[in-house]
Design brief:
Elements (H helix, E strand, L loop, with lengths): L4 H8 L31 E2 L4 E9 L10 E9 L9 E6 L8 H7 L5 H6 E6 L17 H4 L8 H22 L8 H14 L5 E6 L1 H12 L4 E7 L8 H24 L12 H14 L2 E2 L5 E2 L1 H12 L6 H12 L4 H11 L10 H12 L6 H14 L4 H6 L26 E6 L7 H10 L3 E6 L13 H13 L7 E3 L1
Parallel strand pairs: 4-5, 4-6, 6-7, 7-10, 10-11, 11-12
Antiparallel strand pairs: 1-2, 2-3, 3-5, 8-9
Helix pairs in contact: 6-7, 8-14, 10-12
Length: about 500
């Protein structure tokens, strides 16, 4: 079944920012002191089988009683078997920056039937995203994404810096009062209150990609309030910003290499190019970098959009090959429309030129979680390492996080490394050739959770549970979520 754009976009947001997933709270918060009881939410119909609500939470958890609140947008699809309902299943699609309410509405019907029967499926827009106090920056982001993130000259480097400085300033001007309060730790405290508000004694949760980090932080803060967590496409919270970025760049480079090798070996591939797809790709990338190509409707495809379009297709693994083949072949003929369309999917650009809230939230949460690589000079110094790890995509991936060097709010303090104790079994799912979250990250997280259980899925796409039709993965996760019986550690699903 083809997933709707909201899910594809959510998974796509994991890349192109450094520094997320390295902050962790110093210690678990005693349950009695975690938060004041949250009010019950008032659910109202909001289309189809869905119900929506808003939950008031403190804006500033360091000063929760100062009266300042925001309202977290929630969506629920109720369990179909009310007599045998277990409770609520909270979900997060990734990001950071992806709204989760629309995701739950789209995704509930894709989940295995047993989960639809036994759980209320609950999605929420994390703070700063969607309808939960969205971060706002400049309206037109075309100039941000068309920038050259692999600068070849001082002039190109200065141009990129100027665009990102202007972007950071616009975010401060429009959302300065919100930016200090959009960290992942604050979102996790919101999750605690959501759990209270829906009447669950302990949390049952499925998190994809960046959503695994939220699950990890929740387990760290509230280990006694965990029922079952599925963390798919995991982020290892003990890696440094540079390790995260260079390893992720390597993952995308390997996925791109596999795509080009597949195309070179297949005469029917639209981007075959006499068996030299790799050479054709490199020439095309250099051409677009030197001079943007027409993309229809008065738009052009530049180097930054070229990189985003390629990455967007690679998220789907082999399933994304046909779209990428056609898009590259068209670009080689001088038509960048298909690649630009892929880029627009990634960035949340609408046909009228407006953008959704995902990218501003992505920058705000990622830069706040920190730590960033450092100032602009630190990014430039790291380029050699990234180029070595990923010759085609490494530098662009590194500099896509350069916005954090100019961000107006400093990152929260990191106290990694961590190890999480005192939770029931937590299921961590890694995919062998995941382009965005390498398998070694899931392996690392499973070790850092004292009760971590690792399940490895064969695949070339980003994440596996309920998204690929792998019945081995799906059955194992369902048995765990319903019966609290995880698979044996280090289970392999082909």
């Amino acid at each position: 079944m083809r997933l709707r754009r909201s899910f594809a976009l959510a998974l796509a947001l994991t890349i192109f920012l450094l520094g997320i997933s390295t902050v962790t709270p110093a210690s678990a918060v005693p349950d009695a002191q975690a938060a004041a009881p949250s009010p019950k939410v008032e659910w109202k119909p909001c289309g189809g089988d869905s119900e929506c609500a808003k939950l008031a939470v403190p804006l500033d958890y360091e000063h929760p009683n100062n009266g300042e609140t925001i309202k977290v947008a929630l969506l629920r699809v109720r369990a179909t078997d009310r007599k045998n309902r277990i409770g609520s299943l909270l979900m997060n699609p990734g990001g950071p920056g992806a709204p989760g309410a629309e995701f739950a509405q789209d995704f509930a019907s894709i989940l295995p039937e047993e989960l639809q029967k036994r759980f209320d499926i609950i999605g929420f827009d994390p703070r700063g995203t969607g309808d939960t106090a969205p971060v706002k920056c400049q309206d037109n982001l075309d100039g941000v994404f068309s920038a050259d993130y692999s600068p070849d000259s001082p002039a190109e480097r200065a141009d990129l810096a100027a665009r990102l400085q202007q972007l950071a300033q616009s975010c401060q001007e429009r959302s300065g009062d919100l930016l200090p309060f959009v960290s992942s730790e604050s979102t996790v405290r919101d999750m605690y209150r959501i759990r209270q508000a829906v009447g669950d004694k302990k949390l049952t949760y499925v998190g994809y990609s960046y959503g695994t980090y939220l699950g990890t932080l929740y387990a760290k803060l509230f280990p006694k309030k965990v029922r079952a967590l599925v963390l798919d496409g995991a982020i290892d919270p003990n890696l440094s910003a540079v390790e995260i970025g260079s390893e992720q760049a390597g993952g995308f480079e390997r996925s791109l290499d596999a795509f080009l090798a597949n195309c070179s070996a297949n005469r029917r591939c639209p981007f075959y190019n006499a068996g030299d797809s790799a050479g054709a790709f490199d020439r095309l990338a250099a051409q677009v970098d030197a001079q943007p190509i027409p993309a229809g409707d008065g738009r052009t495809l530049g180097g930054g959009e070229f990189d985003l379009g390629v990455a967007q297709a690679l998220y789907s693994g082999r399933l994304g090959y046909p779209r990428l083949q056609q898009a590259l072949a068209a670009a080689l003929r001088g038509d960048g429309k298909r690649l630009l369309g892929l880029s627009d999917e990634y960035t949340g650009r609408h046909d009228d030129g407006s953008y959704d809230s995902s990218q501003p939230a992505f920058w705000a949460i990622g830069c706040r979680d920190g730590p960033a690589v450092g100032g602009p000079e630190a990014y430039e110094a790291a380029e050699a390492q990234f180029r070595a790890a990923a010759p085609r995509v490494g530098v662009a991936l590194l500099n896509a996080g350069l916005i954090c060097a100019y961000w107006p709010v400093p990152p929260v303090k990191s106290v990694a490394p961590i190890r999480i104790e005192g939770t029931p079994p937590i299921l961590v799912i890694g995919t062998t050739n995941d382009p965005a979250t390498p398998l070694k990250w899931s392996q690392g997280l499973a070790r850092e959770l004292s009760s971590g259980v690792l399940l490895t899925a064969e695949g070339t796409q980003h994440t596996s549970f309920a998204t690929t039709g792998n019945t081995c993965v799906d059955d194992a996760a369902v048995t765990y979520l319903v019966d609290l019986q995880p698979p044996p550690n280090d289970t392999k699903c082909t």
